[in-house]
Design a protein that fits this description.
This protein has 202 residues and is mostly helical. The protein is built from 8 helices and no strands.
């Protein structure tokens, strides 16, 4: 049994249970602490994968790590980013800065857009990797479609990163072009979807 993998699961589980219990018993600080623990557990798994080049959150020592190497590095970097984001959210909530931050992100979404893009691109890159060789039929029916989907997800994630950087550098141009493109497509402005999503976090 891998003690580090068990510790990662335990930290995330305790944090999640703490968040649920704090919500039931109306303990706001408990929610913040629980969210911090979830983020810390995920970040610990990310650091393990980065430094060991193996997939984290594995309890058994008998399982073969088919994703060792580059896939594990991508996995570790992605979940480290997720964990660090959750820890930052817990800190903002504890300091009473959560609402202020959400309002700011509603006005200037570039940073969050780039962050989400990196996470999506990492997930897509993981899908591209085939952990071990298979026969021709499996590769044709599963491997090729999986690779195409993974590449599409990576492209979408990188596009989100580029949009986020664009918004951060030139917000006025970004807003004008995106609103014009959505209007031509007959869709509501991006702010409509963005505000609905972020309002749920307030």
């Amino acid at each position: 049994m891998r003690l580090l993998g068990l510790l990662e699961f335990a930290i995330v589980f305790i944090g999640a249970v703490g968040m649920v219990a704090a919500s039931v018993f109306y303990l706001p600080n408990g929610v913040h602490l629980g969210l911090f623990l979830v983020g810390a557990g995920i970040a610990l798994g990310g650091l393990e994968s980065i430094f060991t080049r193996g997939i984290s959150f594995r309890v058994s020592t008998l399982s073969t790590d088919h994703y060792a190497g580059t896939p594990a590095l991508i996995w570790g970097s992605t979940i480290l980013l997720v964990g660090a984001t959750l820890i930052a959210c817990a800190y903002l909530m504890e300091q009473g800065l959560w609402r202020t931050t959400v309002v700011y992100v509603m006005r200037r979404p570039g940073g969050l857009l780039s962050l989400l893009g990196l996470i999506v691109a990492g997930a897509g890159a993981l899908i591209v990797f085939i952990p071990r060789p298979h026969g021709f039929v499996w590769t044709l029916l599963v491997g090729v479609p999986k690779t195409i989907v993974g590449i599409a997800i990576v492209i979408a994630g990188l596009a989100a990163v580029c949009l986020g950087l664009w918004e951060a550098i030139d917000p006025l141009s970004f807003t004008r072009v995106i609103k014009s493109a959505l209007a031509q497509a007959g869709l509501p402005t991006y702010e409509h979807y963005w505000r609905r999503m972020l309002s749920a976090l307030l």
